Amino acid sequence: MSELVTGEAVALELRPARLPSRALAVLLDLAVAVAVYIAVTIALVASTASLDMAAQTALSIAVFVLVLVGGPIAVETLSHGRSLGKMACGLRVVRDDGGPIRFRHALVRGLIGVIEILMTFGVVACIASLVSARGRRLGDVFAGTLVVRERVPVASAGFIPPPPPWLAGRFSGLDLSAVPDELWLAVRQYLARMGQLDARVGWAMAERLAADVAARTGAPVPQEVPPPAYLAAVLQERQAREARRAFGGAAVGPDPAATASPLPPVTPVAPPVIPAAPVTPAPPPPGSSAAPPAPSDGRPGSGTGFVPPA
């Protein structure tokens, strides 16, 4: 992997292309350029047969320069570093800082490539690529560019460690809506590759990323929480919210069921038995001629519990 380090840690995924893949890409580009040059030359000879020899020679030189020199420069500029051969081999030309190339980068690479590739049959380019630590030829050195591989194996992606158990649900109340996607990508890439970094460099990068996340959430990083653990916990909280939004249909926010502590088992308790109070029927309205029913034992009210007023 390349030792380039950018602010978003994107350079950790840059893998410089080596001589075999670069040579194959150059051969494919030269084959296409030569085929186009031959076709254009045949058409030019057929259309300029009436001209004198000097005019035909000038047109031949102009076609050679435009097709074999200007063509690759235009293709790399318009495709941001991807010619036909590089597309077939999974390569791309980027700047030293990992950004896309511009016209001046393609122009310098193309002009120097005429000397080290076309005029010397690629001998100078092969020697420079073997000597360079990142496989750069002279055109890349003068233009400030680097040829990298775009097709990275899936297995090269690092494992993102989970946060410590004691941080589960700690940051469920944070407002993560102001954190941009670029910062989340940088956090994810750092967590996946922090085991490959130097200890001091990785700690400094974790502090910077944690400070950026805390500045956008509005809550400072707790003093007792290490920056890598803070980033892992916040990233897990964000993934949990996205999963609830996509699959659970719930609003984005903390999940009380996931963050609440487990309750102790509840022992069922029988409700107390309350004795029923005796029900006394209401007295009949005044002036009513209805007489109370006769008691079963001869005493007034012994059967119904009702005693007529005196």
In summary, what is this structure?
By secondary structure, the chain is mainly alpha-helical.
Topology:
Layout lengths: L14 E2 L2 H29 L5 H26 L5 H6 L1 E5 L7 H17 L3 H9 L6 H6 L1 E5 L31 H13 L5 H19 L9 H22 L7 H4 L51
Antiparallel strand pairs: 1-3, 2-3
Helix pairs in contact: 1-2, 2-4, 7-8, 7-9, 8-9
Low-pLDDT regions: 6-12, 250-271, 288-296
Oligomer: single chain
Q: Could you give a short account of the major beta sheet?
A: 3 strands, antiparallel
Total helical segments: 10
Structural class: mainly alpha
Describe this structure as you would to a colleague.
The chain has helices spanning 19-47, 53-78, 84-89, 103-119, 123-131, 138-143, 181-193, 199-217, 227-248, 256-259; strands at 15-16, 91-95, 145-149. The chain has 10 helices and 3 strands, in the order βαααβαααβαααα. The model is unreliable at 6-12, 250-271 and 288-296 (pLDDT under 50). The radius of gyration is 42 Å and the shape is elongated. Helix 2 crosses helix 4 (103-119). The chain has a 3-stranded antiparallel beta sheet.
